[in-house]
Specification:
- The structure is a single chain.
- By secondary structure, this protein is α+β, with helices and mostly antiparallel strands.
- It contains eleven helices and four strands.
- Strands 2-3-1-4 form a four-stranded antiparallel beta sheet.
- It is elongated and about 105 Å long.
- The two termini are about 20 Å apart.
- The model has no long low-confidence stretch (mean pLDDT about 80).
- This is Cell division protein FtsX.
- Keywords: Cell cycle, Cell division, Cell membrane, Membrane, Transmembrane, Transmembrane helix.
Length: about 300
């Protein structure tokens, strides 16, 4: 008996969607726009985290020493740093090596080479390049060097790199915040559109509702099809959005791979497609169900 009633409710809900086809289509399209924003924010979060992780993984700490510093003093600093358990390795580049590498990089630029030759002394500084065990250890190592305040150290470049990462993180966080506000605004519009669609469906089916009341149909049996209609709007929008993303990501993935070789966006999307669809289905059903519930409470008195 219960199974038969559920089947009838589903059939009634489907017929209601067909009867109000244009409005149902408009509702699905508006919900698709909202779900596209949600999907975009999810993918943006993945790409942003990949970029930040890659940047943090490539950052090391370069300690520059004043040109007149003796190598013995640099080696003492190097030994002190190597004693930290957060340090993976410390590379040393002498002034002579730095000059040789500079000449190699600019071997085709005669002006720069001649300018270097005219100088009385080597202007380049000896450096220690420090690699940490994890990106999180870099801040500790940089703080250690800052606290030591070695008089022979000219500058430490970690802080400049960290500012770039912090600025990028701030920009990405702002983009996510703006995106979230847009999602909420569009969700409100989608709820209004779906609300009006269910209200029209209730008005169109007023005679059938009256007959069901007369024959003693339960309140949930009368209200159920309209609640299902709202949920179906969300489900159709979720499926449509997922298929759109599948096609778009398949097209743009090679371009993303060119900019971020370490990221296979399409491969990631394929492996996470079920979870992605699940999130969109949940969001779509929530949007459609909420709007239907409000419309039913207001316009369908049983």
């Amino acid at each position: 008996m219960l199974g038969t009633q559920i089947k009838r409710m589903c059939k009634t809900s489907w017929l209601s969607l067909i009867r109000n086809g244009w409005l149902a289509t408009a509702t699905v399209l508006v919900m698709t726009l909202v779900l596209s924003m949600i999907g975009g924010l999810l993918l943006l979060s993945v790409v942003a985290n990949t970029i930040l992780a890659d940047l943090k993984g490539k950052i090391d700490i370069s300690v520059y020493f004043f040109p007149a510093t003796e190598e013995q003093g640099i080696m003492a600093v190097k030994k002190s740093i190597e004693g930290l358990r957060e340090v993976r390795e410390v590379g040393y580049v002498s002034q002579v090596q730095a000059l040789d590498e500079f000449r190699e990089r600019h071997k085709d630029d005669a002006v720069i080479l001649s300018s270097i030759d005219e100088l009385d002394a080597n202007p380049l500084e000896a450096t220690l390049n420090i690699r940490a065990n994890t990106p999180e250890d870099l801040a500790f190592i940089a703080g250690y060097l800052k606290d030591k305040n070695y008089p022979i150290v000219d500058k430490i470049n970690y802080f400049e790199n960290q500012r770039v990462i912090d600025r990028l993180s701030s920009v990405l966080a702002s983009i996510k915040s703006v995106g979230l506000v847009m999602v909420l605004a569009l969700a409100f519009v989608a709820i209004l559109v779906a609300f009006n669609a269910i209200r029209l469906a209730i008005f169109t089916a007023r005679e059938e509702i009256g007959i069901m009341r007369l024959v003693g149909a339960s309140s949930w049996y009368i209200r159920g099809p309209f609640l299902l209609s709202g949920m179906l709007h969300g489900m159709f929008a979720a499926v449509l959005t997922s298929l759109m993303f599948y096609g778009v990501i398949w097209i743009v993935s090679p371009k993303v791979a060119f900019l971020l070789p370490q990221m296979d966006l399409f491969g990631y999307f394929q492996s996470s497609f079920i979870q992605f669809l699940g999130v969109l289905l949940a969001a779509g059903v929530l949007l459609g169900g909420t709007s239907s519930f409000i419309a039913i409470r207001r316009y369908l008195k049983v």
